[in-house]
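Next up, a chain.

===
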Amino acid sequence: MPTMIPTSEISKGTILEMNGSLFAVLEYERFKAGKGNSEARMRVKMRDLSSGFTKEQVFRTDDRVPKAEVESRPFQYLYNEGDLYTFMDKISFEQKSIADDVVGDAKYYLIDGLEVEMLVYNDRPVSVQLPINVDVKIVETEPGFKGDTATGGTKKATTDTGLTIDVPLFLNPGDVIRVDTRSGQYIARV
């Protein structure tokens, strides 16, 4: 049974249970409803954890919303077979296979042995929380040339995880780079 919380307690990352689905809050904003109306409202942008679709909803500030009882547990990524990604629960050492739609874009950052936080609802993983930075290897890009500098332009590169990002011109296939998992941007060569 979800806990009812006032909309003033909503923050980024809060998991709400509405109409039988779980929604992760992506953004929220307080605003006044109109010129003559002094009632404050809360606009919430959220993502459906089962379908991945985002939606916006407006609540009155005196509304109460159902916060889902989710637990954050440490997991370690092991491998994938087709559309299933296998993780090991670091507490119980139980292996769980998770569908591609639950993993979402996190699949582009999963490297063998990566430790992640998994949001678990009723003993079922519902969302993968990545570390802020991940080191991946470039497998395909145009070669760098003498004279290319770190402050120059960029080029596309594909990593061993399937992620395609913009990198500086001096990088070559085989280079290991650090990527920000929140924005998908190149940070540094490792």
